[in-house]
Amino acid sequence: MLPAIPDLRQLRYFVAVAEEKHFGRAAARLSMTQPPLSQAIRALEETLGVELFARTKRSVELTPVGADLLPEVQRLLANAEGLRPLAQSLARGEAGVLSLAFVSTADYGLLPLLLRDFGTRHPRVRLELTEATSDVQADELLAGRIDAGLVIAPLPSRHAARLSWLPIVREPLIIAMSTDTAARVSSTAGADPHAEWLDTPISLRDVADAPLVIFPRRLAPGFYDIIMDCYGVAGVAPRVGQEAIQMQTIVSLVSAGMGVALVPQSLRNLRRTGVVYRPLCESVPAIETGLVWRTGEVSPVLAGFIEIARAHAAIDA
């Protein structure tokens, strides 16, 4: 019974005969005798159900089908020969695919740094990037749809046994407000409303009447509670105004005068007309962003990314 598909040995024989146009020379090139070569080519033709060569006593020529098939077979053999080095590259984490999700806040500080270093060290790895909230990332990880994620701590305790966590960067919360709000606060404090506002700390008590623009608590309850605790430290009861999922949307609502927002310090890199960022007078906890992945499921590519993340964590420590 003939095999359903030809093997690589038969395909190499086909290429040798096609290029030499002579069974004897092809056999010598392949370090074999002519009869088994002829038999192998016949078997290949029977497997494919077509004639590849037009044979005479003096010559061997490719049939039209054989001529069209030759470049395809050559390409297939070249790909097969590349399997070993590709497999070794995959094992070393030098090639492959890494599916990475990230919270929107990471896009303005941590993420570009990690991608730059990873791309330099692993240029052959294809990155699949997805922006997602922390809760979505946990679900995607546990479902096996992403390899790792950049999230804001803390992780839900129910996931602790199945997910590994690497803290990378800690940064304080700052307040984002409209330029009109900033001018009003400066005027109330007796400061020059035209002065540089960026590095002048203010208290949440100074904006107690402004609505708070924030994300829904279900998306990142730990982060949400930290923001609420900041108001508690200041002795102010927050008044939640608008809710939005993406940090860019929150800042846009602030620019439109819809309220103020507490955001990680790296959000200063999100330049938006009509928005001023200021540090807080109150002592507030730092926001911790880190890498999370499924415990015990570390591919060579992911191991390379974790190594780079650890290096950045050491710098920030």
Topology:
Layout: H1 8-20, H2 23-29, H3 34-48, E1 53-55, E2 60-62, H4 64-81, H5 83-91, E3 96-102, H6 110-121, E4 125-131, H7 134-142, E5 148-152, E6 163-171, E7 173-178, H8 179-188, E8 212-214, H9 221-234, E9 240-243, H10 247-255, E10 261-264, E11 275-279, E12 287-294, H11 300-316
Parallel strand pairs: 3-4, 3-5, 8-9
Antiparallel strand pairs: 1-2, 5-12, 6-12, 7-10, 7-11
Helix pairs in contact: 1-2, 1-3, 1-4
Verbal overview:
The protein has helices at residues 8-20, 23-29, 34-48, 64-81, 83-91, 110-121, 134-142, 179-188, 221-234, 247-255, 300-316, and strands at 53-55, 60-62, 96-102, 125-131, 148-152, 163-171, 173-178, 212-214, 240-243, 261-264, 275-279, 287-294. The chain is of the alpha/beta class. It has three domains: 8-81, Arc Repressor Mutant, subunit A (Orthogonal Bundle), CATH 1.10.10.10; 95-169 and 288-316, Periplasmic binding protein-like II (D-Maltodextrin-Binding Protein, domain 2, 3-Layer(aba) Sandwich); 173-285, 3-Layer(aba) Sandwich (D-Maltodextrin-Binding Protein, domain 2). It has a five-stranded mixed β-sheet, with helices on both faces. The protein has a three-stranded antiparallel β-sheet with strand order 10-7-11. The protein has a two-stranded antiparallel sheet with strand order 1-2.
